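Predict structure. Chain length: 307.
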Amino acid sequence: MNTLIFSVSAFCLFGSIWGSFGNVVLHRLKHGGSLVFDRSHCPQCNTTLGVLDLFPILSWIFLRGKCRYCQNSISIQYPITELLFAIIWGLYGYVFFPYISIAQTLLHLFIISSLIIISLYDIKYYEIPDEVSLPSIFILTLIALWQQNTDAFIAATLIYSFFYLQIFIPTAIYAWKQKSWKEVFIAIKSFFIFPLWIALSCFISEKKLEKWSIFQEEENEEIPQWIGGGDLRIAFIMGLFLGTKEALIALFLSYIIGSFIGVFVLAIYKKKNQMIPFGPFLSLGTIISLFAGQTLWTLYWETFVNF
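Prediction complete.
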């Protein structure tokens, strides 16, 4: 028991530290700056922060949510992000440690952290950063190739195809109503081009890729779509990371959780056009499935199939 408490506490501690770095990533991906070489500073007065200002969670509490130097308020996002990382890393330590290898633990924590950052970025800016999603896809693809894990590629293809249908079907309906099949052709082309774009973007800058005519598309804002390119990237991560069974569980959980929270948010704001990012639900479903996917799969099978 003492070993378990120590292990979980250590995971929580390192999770909060990584969450502090996650705050840096969230800010600098949007506003610029090096993730490695630039010192942490107050976003209001730009004063470089000292060691006592950088303790995860505790510094914000002791400073009462204000900068030590300019007394401007520090966003509550910072301690919440650090606490979120601490809780999820702690849960991971409780569930998995020391039952899997160090290499697998590091991979899991890297993907979990990437998904948390992707979710928070999507909530704040309504977009999913390529700088986080693409390296995750690249690493998972290399590992799947090295392990000859065909199940990972099957899962990624299935989840990606399912998501893309939600783009293609509204496009086809719009084209049928407008008697114009140009959008359908673009959608079919994009189904095959998008994975190629993801693969090449790991080696070639996005700006250069956008100049190539094969990757240029015309977006029609009249076509209703609630699945975006960022969600398709998470689909690849979900499939490559979990495999078929757990990915299906993650997909199911994402839609169930997203439906409940979506209805709740719409009831509060009472706006039909209120934007609700779907990335956080996909990430949450993926993390839950990592923790309990096999258990949920067995429970479903025994309850509804072998009843």
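Summary: The mean pLDDT is 81.
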